[in-house]
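Section 3.1 - Work completed
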Amino acid sequence: MAAARLRKTLRDSDTMARVGGDEFVAVLPGTFSDAQIKLVTGRLLAALHSPFEIDNHTIYVSASIGISIYPLHAEDEVRLVALADAAMGRAKETGKSRYVVYSARQSGPPEHDISLEAAMFQAVREGEFLLYYQPIVDAPTRQIQGFETLMRWKHPTLGMVPPVRFIPIAETNGLINLLGAWALKAACVQLKQFEEVAKRELYISVNISPRQFRNDKFLDVLDDALAFSSLSGERLVLEITEGTLMIDPVHAETILAKMAERRARIAIDDFGTGYSSLAYLKRFPISVLKIDRAFIKDLPDSQKDGAICNAVLDLAKHLDLSVVAEGVETEEQMRFLDGRGCQYVQGYLTGKPMPAHVAMAALKENLYAELLPSELRAGIL
């Protein structure tokens, strides 16, 4: 209904497209003036001011508009959309229900981020994104139990682009939905290959971004990944941050329940660094807590970090939740966690993120160690 209203405000020569979620792009060819911009944006905003009547409910909607101009701001479509998106973000920050014309002085991502965003669209077309896998191991035996899937971008000239640079951009421009759907399906397929090498069942853990989780097609994406890979849901762990759940707890509860119906396990990533509301541990169908590396790096010397880890482990035990400690890098940290009953660990000590073929080699080595007599296995481990 909103799309139909917006479309009626534009000319036949204009283009209106829904690009994901509640975001639209309008392309208006021709000359422009400040008065024309004000007129068109005023019409678009006014089109949404009248209430919507849905199933006997009255719903009010507003919009924020960002504008970029060709060729004043950019000469290619990717940069134009990126700059308009930056201006829209500025409109939201400065009061919402208004329009902002892009200005490099006022807002928007830095120039290198805009260039990086343009490169990301090319990277998707060229298949430059990769998946790496970090082992999650049983603390007492160090047997690999599963892998966390991590996205990487191998740029032809920049080399490996850190996720901290490209993930936020993908989250903003909506590419994360495409990349996330690909990662979920590819990880489920890869797990089958890992299990063939290990000769036993494993599990795969995949991060779900806030935008993915809010997308109305997410459950379809999940179903598609499970069906395509023939993977049973209980061998898939979906990692979600605390903040993602608390943005809209009612929506989160509904979606998590449907994920649980598919037998997928839910993990709270970076536990303790976000909202840390104990109420959601009771309310939501959560199976796994991942202790953030911030509480691990100073172990065993830090009494406060030790107390926090003990509290999380004790809480998880009474709630029948599994715990994975992230960022384990030393034997001292491993001994501390193992001694306090933390069953699963993940970190550089037991394996860095690695390409799939390296992960399969690690599984073969792990399998060899399992077949040795216990005294020799202890010496190797």
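Second construct:
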Amino acid sequence: MQNNFWFSADKIMKILVSIIILFCNISAFFSQDNPLIIRTKFLPDQLWLDNNGVHLNAHGAGILFHKGIYYMYGEHKLAGETVGKIAVHCYSSVDLYNWKDEGAALMTSDNPNSEISEGCIIERPKVIYNKKTNKFVMWFHLELKNQLRKSGRSGVAVSDKPSGPFEYLHSVRPNAGYWPINVTPEQKASLVEAQKLAGTSFIGSPHPDRAALPFMARDFAGGQMAKDMTLFVDDDGKAYHIFSSEENATLHISELSDDYLSHTGKWARVFEYLWHEAPAICKHDGRYWMLSSNCTGWNPNAARSAVANSIWGPWKDLGNPCTGATPRNHLGPQLTFGGQSTFILPVQGKPGAYIVLFDVWRPENLIASGYVWLPIRFEKNRFSISWLDTWDLSVFKHKN
């Protein structure tokens, strides 16, 4: 009777060949040429693929850390500027190098009368977690459909899960009927003059004829314009909405309600008529640090940095924090390495470690826009950001 456990030399050879082929396939999968390679480092401004081998589609992003997982929320871009069915895309990661596609966090509405119907513009989504309500709260810059970027509204959505789906609640023009805490008597007295600006169209970039127009008073009754934005939760749980306002001329810092769904009416104007956008903020060694950009549309410019002992200011301008050799894309420190700030991420488990996220905009094909992530180095009275072709979290071995 033939022994079922006996293998001939021919069968053994076939098994060995199969093992060798399998080993070669595994090696090929993890080779540099395979799109699904497991990353172990950051490669700034190189193609960044998700677990499906697709370029990450999360622009103007913010990141939330919750129960051991990082969640990234960003604009889902198409070839053009408007928003399709997916408004905000979500990805998750446990190591910051490799990202899993979690799908749509926020969808546009099929109702043509909805504020977020397909064709609106949704930018710079940020999500924070409210410990009191156990809700995940998303804020974003919203431009209504067919309004040619004149809306300047802030949209709000909530979810019970970090990956969504988020339910759209409403949009607002912030702080209607409230003066900022640093308002002057002259600004209050400008209400009559400001009425002349009603309905006037402006382009949100520096212009000498608009150096001191009373945009804030113009929008006092109906609420302030809110464009490029970020969210920040302080150590005491208080949350703040920081956004470019007044036709991009001045930044506003606004306190959010305890449930993070609305504004309290307490707010301040900072960098008056200095034309900042793309704000990002963090807290380090008890002080508040801000990164922002000039207003040059899709084109890169020199980044700006600032520091304050209080979230309300006064803020001290620190100039361009970018330093170092010109990177391979030839857009060096004076052009923020070709990027524009969107978020400053605290690295969990590494006190004093922060990563700044930049978008590299490609307006001719926005879905192909890239990402530059670089570590921040804090010094006594400033911080710096230097180009690195490749880096990993080991750069944070020593506290800044």
